[in-house]
Design brief:
The structure is a homodimer. Chain A contains eleven helices and no strands. By secondary structure, chain A is mostly helical. The structure holds a DNA duplex.
Chain lengths: 256, 256
DNA sequence: CATAAACTGTTTATAGCATAAACAGTTCAT
DNA sequence: ATGAACTGTTTATGCTATAAACAGTTTATG
């Protein structure tokens, strides 16, 4: 759009707008539209009809404008999507640990709280999960969420790259667990699960797939499947794994 | 296409073909095309130009046919994608544990080997990672990979749903780690990483983002970032977490 | 104050996409 | 031999993102 800030053009799509760069404009007709208004409309649409319903034409129509009008405010649809995701994450809102006591280390409580909080954002805007992650977080709200997670990990004896790796993996873990839970919830649990298992038993070779079949024969499964606690399970496993690393480190390299 | 098998139509897209159902055909012109041939061409295209280059028209053109000819063999593009992914996974090929001795439990060795093997498939056909996971595995090769992973977990004292959850999370973990590594590798490491960090320092507020900035100031990071060992790190953490659960349960996994 | 630059929104147009429908040719069961 | 069943093509439809040209509006500058 404008290239008054010469570096704004080289930024990844959406990032310049997301950070409030651009806009030295003064001349010209007053704008009725704005990135914020477009993004809001697009989010409303995605919330109610899914990400696949979001097309430039449809968003513009919902706003009462033509498709091309959006391009006066956004360089591309990609840019719109980036801004939508950033806005949908929003400010991290989980209460900062009110110094409550428990028998577990504070990094664990904090991390768990972070995970549950961001899970809620995914559940509020499930279409975020339909937008593929492209690289490291670069938008303001994503970086704020990362910041909060890193603060939870701060009291930890992990190295910088271990912290970063752990944080990114925790984010991935919440993302994929929530996606799995929502996918399963989409297909009406009882009937669809029966159908799936029935399919397996019809198609699988009892020899080549003995473990799969054994698993799905287990009566315990159906019960747990409804619980939808994949996130908690995976999270606690991963936290245990991090804790094991910390313990091992504390006992082995004392001096450092 | 044909509904001689009345249930074949109600199967998810691609599944019927993938399992070799359908095809009672005898009359009519001999087919030059086949699902297998189409899928092979599409995979070649995706390997060389990425999944976004795969359109019905382009695949048909590469084969020397018209777009619509493909629809005589596949119900939809979705079906093509399902078959592509299944074929790209292929048969699990990692050598079955040659009873080698080590100080760690066999489930751990087996799981790690499984993870590295499937990582190689992702690296061979990175576009698999661009196809979103929709639900539980239902195609033959995906189920074979799941079977192998469950066999590695078999000697474990985990319950059925714990095994299933662990397996699915391990699959997710390898998937997202590999995706991260490939994403980073795509953007030529040295320059792009510098640019990213530079961007952060330009945009972030030192107060609101102190942990993020602190992390990226750490000289240790740049070194590790090249190593590209996100998968190993996350994997070992998760395996440690699983082991902690088993130990807590006070069960012993004897070396196989 | 007039003019030109800069801006916003619209119209029109293009190239790509998946896929429906109708048709022509081929092969086999009857 | 005849017709059903099959394969591949042609033609057409309604989406998609977005480029280009144009008209109107505002404001900074001559």
């Amino acid at each position: 759009m404008q290239q008054k800030k010469p570096d704004a053009t080289k930024l990844p799509p959406g990032i310049a707008i997301a950070w409030g760069l651009e806009r030295p404009s003064t001349r010209g007709a007053k704008a009725e539209l704005s990135p914020a208004r477009i993004v809001k409309a697009a989010i409303g649409l995605a919330d109610s009809e899914g990400l696949s319903a979001v097309s430039m034409a449809r968003v513009a129509k919902d706003l009462g404008f033509t498709s091309m009008s959006l391009y006066r405010h956004l360089r591309s649809k990609e840019e719109l999507l980036v801004l939508m995701v950033d806005a949908a994450f929003g400010e991290p809102d989980f209460a900062a640990s009110p110094a409550i006591e428990s028998d577990e280390p504070s990094w664990r409580t904090g991390t768990r709280r972070w995970a549950k909080a961001i899970e809620q954002r995914y559940r509020k805007h499930p279409w975020i999960l339909d937008y593929p992650v492209t690289g490291p977080p670069a938008s303001p709200h994503e970086l704020l969420w990362l910041e909060q997670l890193l603060r939870a990990l701060a009291p930890t004896p992990l190295t910088a790259s271990e912290k970063l790796n752990s944080a990114l993996m925790l984010a991935n873990l919440v993302r994929s667990s929530t996606r799995m839970e929502l996918d399963v919830a989409d297909n009406d649990s009882p009937a669809a699960f029966e159908a799936y298992v029935g399919l397996l038993f019809k198609l699988l070779d009892p020899q080549k797939h003995r473990e799969v079949l054994g698993l799905f024969s287990d009566p315990e499964l159906a019960v747990m499947e409804d619980a939808g606690d994949e996130l908690s399970f995976a999270l606690e496993r991963y936290l245990d794994g991090m804790e094991a690393l910390m313990v091992r480190r504390k006992s082995i390299d004392r001096p450092d």
